[in-house]
Amino acid sequence: MRLSLARAELALRQHPRVLSGAALTLLLGSAVTAFGVAPLTPIDTTPVSTRIITEAMAVPDLTPQSLALEAYTLALHRNDVTRAGDTADSLLARLGISDLEAAAFLRRDRTAQRILTGRTGKRVQATSVAGPSGQLQRLVVRGPALDSARALTHFSRVTLTREAGGFSIQEEDVALGVEHRSGAGTIQSSLFAAADQAGLPDSVTIQMAEIFGSDIDFRRELRKGDTFAVVYESLSADGEPLTWGVNTGRVLSARFVNDGHTLDAVWFQDGDQRGGYYSADGKSKARVFLASPLAFSRVSSGFSMRFHPILKQWRAHLGVDYAAPTGTPVRSVGDGTVEFAGTQNGYGNVVIVRHGGEHSTVYAHLSRIGVRAGQKVAQGDTLGGVGSTGWATGPHLHFEFKQGGRQVDPIKVARSSEAVTLGSAALARFRDLASSAQDHLVGALASAGAVAQME
Ligand SMILES: [Zn+2]
């Protein structure tokens, strides 16, 4: 027989004289705590005020109640996530369930088999009978949408239920919950440190750095006192955070005040056109060239320069050096054709990409090369990995941007490269969106105490 906590509670509430409501809550509350692992709740940035109330309470004789409790079977709830190499047995063991029938079903049923195959990190919620039998009653598994085209809007929910003669199983795609959240901060040491303090997920910080990547070189130009605010979508599955990689939705709008200059970006999708980020005046943030050949990440942004040039003539070299761990992906800053991919003396493993016009880019000291001469590449395509081949004493990327054979500053080229401007009809729609987005950002900055930094 299975009895949920709710029924146990009901049974106890029928004897109010024996047990006060407070003690009941206490008793049931501690039963839940003892047996269950509390589900993770989404990060809530609203301040919570807590008040502790202490009151004297006569402690009744609890013996009849504990006896009464023992007469009922409590349902246990446990949570876990699937891991690489999981089997039906290892998963059930982690959930504290020993149930041969359930294990056999998980191995045999084709829908159930999908729980343990494909993407790991699916959230598993098990309900089982307390006590020696430990029988599985219900298993709910939430993971990536079955239809991968809906990965950002849906999740899959598999529900396995014990029935009279065995188990029933149901699998469906369900819409993700979408919530708008905001965060703001002031740079003291690094972007990630400030974003951590603001409680922003890494994926939001990285999106922000990419959105403003053609305006600000986040590795070289951040100033102490720079401020930012961001409004983003936060996704949830049945009210729980996603555990399988798509942790956060899209950044909807962002503001960055760098060295006194205010930059805004607002996500805008006009009808069925491809969406993108636009500045407050309706200019696309996308550029012909990216400012940096390395994607912004927690690891590469905090990596210090631990090398020095080996040869004197190398010291006088032109270009930009990015220190980063060996293997960090190196991406093409623009569309083009691979002109050279191979080894050259001081450069070590090097890739040279020719872009339209007179532009070419050089990526040197690579640990590996992932492209061939003559190959077409698109902006953002991986060319190879950071290394220390050639004249380098430590892993870093040596990057050159040439225009008509002369060296130019990559961030300057990126900033001046052409941007798409919205047409007048779209611009009118965009302006409405942008002004409400800006109100949001100002509110976020104000609540973070960063308003004094604004223009
Ligand atoms: Zn260099």
From TrEMBL:
<keyword id="KW-0479">Metal-binding</keyword>
<dbReference type="InterPro" id="IPR050570">
    <property type="entry name" value="Cell_wall_metabolism_enzyme"/>
</dbReference>
<dbReference type="GO" id="GO:0046872">
    <property type="term" value="F:metal ion binding"/>
</dbReference>
<dbReference type="GO" id="GO:0004222">
    <property type="term" value="F:metalloendopeptidase activity"/>
</dbReference>
<dbReference type="Pfam" id="PF19425">
    <property type="entry name" value="Csd3_N2"/>
</dbReference>
<feature type="domain" description="M23ase beta-sheet core">
    <location>
        <begin position="316"/>
        <end position="410"/>
    </location>
</feature>
<dbReference type="GO" id="GO:0006508">
    <property type="term" value="P:proteolysis"/>
</dbReference>
<keyword id="KW-0862">Zinc</keyword>
<keyword id="KW-0645">Protease</keyword>
<dbReference type="InterPro" id="IPR011055">
    <property type="entry name" value="Dup_hybrid_motif"/>
</dbReference>
<dbReference type="Pfam" id="PF01551">
    <property type="entry name" value="Peptidase_M23"/>
</dbReference>
<dbReference type="InterPro" id="IPR016047">
    <property type="entry name" value="M23ase_b-sheet_dom"/>
</dbReference>
<dbReference type="GO" id="GO:0030313">
    <property type="term" value="C:cell envelope"/>
</dbReference>
<keyword id="KW-0482">Metalloprotease</keyword>
<feature type="domain" description="Csd3-like second N-terminal">
    <location>
        <begin position="184"/>
        <end position="304"/>
    </location>
</feature>
<dbReference type="InterPro" id="IPR045834">
    <property type="entry name" value="Csd3_N2"/>
</dbReference>
<protein>
    <submittedName>
        <fullName>Peptidase M23-like protein</fullName>
    </submittedName>
</protein>
<keyword id="KW-0378">Hydrolase</keyword>
